[in-house]
Amino acid sequence: MGSDWIGSDGSWENNNADPCTLQGVECNQNGSVQKLDLSDRNLSGKIEKSIGYMTNLQELDLSSNQLTGKVPVELSLLPLTYLNIANNRITGDIPSVLCQKNDVNGNGVDGSFSCSRIACPVGSFSSTGYETNLNECGLCNDQVNYIGRITCDDASSDDASSGEITSGFIIGLSAALALVAFGFVGWFIVRRVRKQRFYGSWNKNEDTTMASVTIGDGSPGDERLPFNTVDASFPVDEQSSAGVSKSSSRSSKKEVWLDVPRI
Q1: Residues 58, 81: contact at Cβ < 8 Å?
Q2: Helix (H, G, I), strand (E, B), or coil: what is residue 237?
Q3: Which end of the chain is more exposed for a tag (fewer CB within 10 A), N or C?
Q4: Domain 11-156's class?
């Protein structure tokens, strides 16, 4: 690490400085380093094996640098819960003992372990450089042999990303159209049922028609008396029957309104 690394405040050049005061270092109440964040610092070289002997280190972020070499197996000695070595020039395989370590980036939480939780293997990538529950490592069609990549250099990865976006759009559009279709069908069924109920009620009422008996000469004081043509015993004069209006003989039980002069 030299003076040209990004974000240097000069503290790392002081060999007598308290480690807990160094930039990117976080210590616990006992003064032990528990977090080391040196991401995007333009660091180069290999990952030091001695980091594996920082017995209280829980979080280690070395992402987005120019680091090379392989992942040291000594990192498996740490009580890590978070490890990020993405976007470097690291090669080789992740030590299997590190892949089987509980809780590192959520590894083993669901009972399964994967080295992809530490870093995406050669020939693959993800936006984080490692696999998560919501972000799997996708394939790259290139000859780059680095692990923990966050992008691919080939056009096929862009096409794949575009394809995923297009597929997502099509799925979303299909779901929206399906909802509209179900809504229309539901509306049509409700409308049909209401229409059937209306006409059924209308037809039922039509079977019992009414006639009117007008008592008087139609003046404002006239009275109208409804009666049932089947049960009616009210006498009707033949000459006044011209004022009788009957409905069609659709039903055997109808009511007739007769115009009868007031007595």
Answers
A1: yes
A2: coil
A3: C
A4: alpha beta
